[in-house]
Write a structure and sequence with these properties.
The protein is α+β, with helices and mostly antiparallel strands. It folds into 3 domains: about 50 residues, no CATH class; about 55 residues; about 100 residues, Immunoglobulin-like. Helix content is about 35%, strand content about 25%. Helix 2 packs across helix 3 and helix 4 packs antiparallel against helix 5.
């Protein structure tokens, strides 16, 4: 593969940072980064772009039932007996302690697998597109695929808008823009759209400033304030 095309280099760097590359392709890209300073700079730039997304995500703690199950299997904690005098290498307490620790780790691992392997875990959301400010380039909106063949588009930070206007989302893929709905300027209040409405990879999601209630013509009438390419089609 030739890496002279700037658009290809940008796409690969973005996919690398997002973690959507297959394992072998990622290994090849690791070598490219080590050998190509320009590629390394592209990856660093994408990492800075996506940094606000990481900061916006709240950490998820394991359910309490997992810890309770581990405690039940391990039993109450007991203080270790004082080691006998003599060489630490010959200490029976040391070897018993090491064996007990290994057994505890094994039990904890089995409990963890037993709890989660038998449950259906919801699919991890996949970043479909990041819409950046047309002037500053700062990421402002994110589109993520989840369950039920839907994509959620929401603000990364509170967006400023007056009561007389609305943010409207559009899909652009080689033809006239298609309206997808009105966006809330408040983070966490995203709209869900069908995955089939999202443009294919390489298409664009855009947000324009429209009168309150949306465009009266079915096409953008105000300035396009935010836009971003689709990284991966969720279909």
């Amino acid at each position: 593969m030739k890496y002279d095309d700037p658009k290809l280099r940008e796409l690969l760097a973005g996919r690398y940072v997002l973690g959507t590359m297959p394992r072998r392709a990622r290994a090849r890209f690791d070598r490219l980064i080590a050998e190509d300073a320009a590629f390394c700079a592209d990856v660093r730039e994408w990492a800075e772009i996506f940094a606000p997304i990481d900061a916006a995500e709240a950490p998820v703690a394991p359910p309490q039932r997992v810890w309770r199950a581990i405690e039940t299997q391990l039993g109450p904690a007991r203080a270790p007996a004082a080691p006998a005098r003599g060489s630490w290498f010959d200490s029976l307490w040391l070897w018993r302690g090491a064996t007990g620790f290994a057994a505890a780790v094994a039990v904890a691992l089995l409990v963890y697998i037993g709890v989660f392997a038998t449950q259906e875990t919801p699919p991890m959301p996949t970043v479909v597109a990041v819409l950046s400010d047309s002037k500053s380039g700062a990421p402002a909106w994110i589109a993520r695929s989840g369950r039920d063949d839907q994509v959620t588009v929401s603000a990364l930070g509170r967006q400023t808008i007056d009561a007389g206007h609305s943010f409207q989302l559009w899909a652009i893929a080689g033809g006239p823009p298609r309206p997808l709905g009105l966006l809330s300027p408040v983070p966490g209040r995203g709209i869900a759209i069908p995955s089939s409405a999202v443009p294919p990879t390489g298409g664009v999601l855009a947000v324009s400033l429209e009168p309150a209630g949306g465009s009266p013509t079915g096409q953008p009438t105000g300035p396009v304030l935010f836009q971003g390419k689709v990284f991966s089609n969720p279909l």
